[in-house]
Write a structure and sequence with these properties.
With about 210 residues, the chain is mostly helical. Helices cover about 85% and strands about 0% of the residues. The longest helix is centred in the last third of the chain and has 31 residues, at about 180-210. The relative contact order is 0.15.
Length: about 210
């Protein structure tokens, strides 16, 4: 967390991107509040995921450049634990701020107030999934100078279920439909990612550092 806060510009970029993208929809698409309310869950979710992607490439980049990453893999502490700490730190400085900011932007999109708590809960799970799954892609591309685009291509197909479940949860709540099932599926997906990705990320880092 200390290292992350030393690069404050990298922390603010996802938040600025999130605000700008969401703000452009009322201007460029429609000013009809009814239509905006229908599109709000998808707009907020897609914008939040894209904003989180901006910082994924930096998760292991600086550690790789200065040799710290190799020392982490050789340390007496299980590397899976260190990787999990990196993932949680990334989520705390990206996913959590985006989630906290989402209620303010939801007002701009006329999202019903009753759906805002569900939006925040779904984003908490969804952005954590992004950090977990993105860590595997970040580990695979950390040795590339311009791996950001490749990272996005690698993990975006895996994030489609997260986007579908998250958007469906908020949309169902906003339209008075059953939403608990979608949230349960999103939670199950996040739990599975939490169990598997530290091991997969360490394996990917061993391949990358070994090369």
């Amino acid at each position: 967390m200390t290292l992350a806060f030393r690069r404050r510009a990298d922390l603010l970029n996802p938040l600025f991107f999130f605000v700008v993208v969401v703000s452009l929809f009322p201007i460029g698409v429609t000013l009809d509040l009814a239509k905006l309310a229908l599109m709000a869950p998808g707009i907020l979710w897609v914008s939040a995921l894209l904003a989180s992607l901006l910082s994924l490439d930096l998760m292991f980049r600086n550690d790789f450049d200065d040799g710290t990453l190799e020392q982490m893999l050789l340390a007496a502490v299980p590397p899976q634990l260190l990787v999990l700490c990196k993932i949680i730190s990334h989520w705390l400085v990206t996913g959590l701020p985006l989630t906290v900011l989402s209620p303010v932007l939801s007002v701009m999109l006329a999202l019903p107030a009753k759906a805002v708590p569900v939006l925040m809960l779904s984003l908490l799970l969804g952005t954590l999934s992004l950090s977990l799954i993105g860590s595997v892609g970040a580990a695979l591309t950390v040795g590339l100078r311009k791996g950001g685009l490749l990272l996005t291509i690698l993990i975006m197909p895996i994030l489609v279920p997260v986007l579908i479940f998250g958007t469906s949860t908020v949309q169902a709540m906003a339209t008075d439909q059953p939403w608990q099932g979608y949230l349960a599926l999103l939670g199950a997906f996040t739990a599975g990612a939490f169990a598997l990705t530290p091991w997969l990320t360490v394996a990917a880092l061993n391949v990358t550092v070994g090369d």
